[in-house]
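Sequence design from tokenized structure. All designs in this work follow the same two-part layout: the structure record, then the generated sequence. An example of the structure record is given first.
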């Protein structure tokens, strides 16, 4: 059988600040992120299956990514647990949706976390191949399964 890679693209808006950073990104700022999720597997060859010929239904992949990443991070403010994140609770109108991470919310760490989340949610016959997270027009981070055995 032939292994096939399937990719779905997503977009979301997110703000973050880098705690204890020595550049301008120490301030809360936002990005229009693009996320490419590529999975691999062997297409289902059971002619009786409603997923016949598919590695994964694009709709199923969309639902997994949307429920576990997009819905959680879209229009959220993301800060590291080391930052004084408890103060965000005092400004409900502007910070009613925020995430506190165990890591510095850099593009590199976000893509690593997203990979961990998605690997746990994919069907058993589908493997996460790569994730690309684009933070700006010219900057992105990539996670590859082959690099993380």
């Amino acid at each position: 059988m032939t292994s096939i890679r399937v990719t779905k693209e997503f977009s979301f808006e997110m703000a973050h600040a880098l705690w204890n950073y020595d550049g301008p990104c120490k301030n809360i700022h936002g990005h229009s992120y693009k996320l490419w999720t590529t999975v691999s597997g062997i297409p289902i060859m059971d002619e009786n299956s409603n997923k016949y010929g598919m590695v994964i239904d694009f709709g199923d992949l969309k639902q997994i990514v949307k429920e576990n990443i997009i819905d959680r991070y879209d229009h959220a403010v993301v800060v590291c647990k080391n930052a004084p994140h408890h103060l965000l609770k005092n400004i409900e109108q502007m910070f009613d949706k925020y995430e506190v991470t165990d890591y510095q919310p850099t593009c590199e760490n976000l893509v690593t976390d997203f990979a961990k989340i998605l690997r746990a949610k994919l069907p058993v016959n589908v493997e996460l191949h790569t994730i690309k997270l684009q933070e700006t027009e010219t900057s992105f981070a990539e996670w590859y399964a082959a690099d993380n055995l």
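The first strand starts at residue 4 and ends at 16. We note this feature because it recurs in several other targets discussed in the main text.
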